[in-house]
Design brief:
- The chain is mainly α and 176 residues long.
- It has one domain.
- Helix content is 77%, strand content 2%.
- It contains 6 helices and 2 strands.
- The chain has a two-stranded antiparallel ribbon with strand order 1-2.
- A hairpin with a 2-residue loop joins strand 1 and strand 2.
- The chain is globular.
């Protein structure tokens, strides 16, 4: 199989897995449902998630259907890529599940990194009025506020985003 086909398969799966992870994260952080960014994520994930919700319940704010879907899509992506490359799938189901869980964890940490980076860059230029900036603040504040209690802003400079980026990257590199 050519690199182009691998790229397209990986990209298509990864983009949808990211949308599902964002949906789960938005529910956990109780992001404003009526925000245009939230509505976009809900509309692209709803057709697949809504039927799964009949099978997998939500526990508190944790959407088991979204977590299952992200893991199932990651497993399917890995299965397809290995099967196309080798002509068969020489690994056990347990190995596939573990690889899918690792893939979802790394993808989640990657999303957190990019949301933090985008939020930091947007804070330099925008005045807090963009709907995407509002969603990013709602997503990241629960992680940043405990860091700010330990390391308060120094001379007006908030280092909590930098500290969280370093922590996220350390964990991501450790589990990759």
């Amino acid at each position: 199989m050519g690199n182009g086909a691998q790229f397209l398969i990986t990209t298509a799966f990864d983009l949808y897995i990211m949308a599902v992870i964002l949906r789960l994260w938005m529910q956990l952080a109780q992001v404003d449902y009526f925000n245009p960014v939230s509505q976009f994520i809900v509309k692209i994930t709803g057709p697949v998630l809504n039927p799964l919700r009949r099978v997998f319940p939500t526990i508190g704010r944790f959407d088991i259907a979204a977590a299952f879907l992200a893991c199932a899509l990651a497993a399917l992506k890995i299965f397809i890529l290995i099967h196309l490359q080798m002509g068969s799938f020489p690994y056990s189901v347990l190995n596939l599940v573990l690889a899918a869980l690792q893939n979802v964890a790394v993808t989640t940490l990657t999303i957190i990194f990019w949301v933090l980076l985008a939020r930091a860059i947007m804070s330099w230029f925008s005045q807090g009025q963009h709907p995407m900036e509002f969603v990013m603040a709602q997503l990241t504040e629960p992680m940043l506020s405990p860091i700010r209690r330990i390391i308060p802003p120094i001379g007006g400079l908030d280092l909590s985003v930098l500290v969280l980026i370093i922590i996220v990257q350390f964990i991501r590199v450790s589990i990759s």
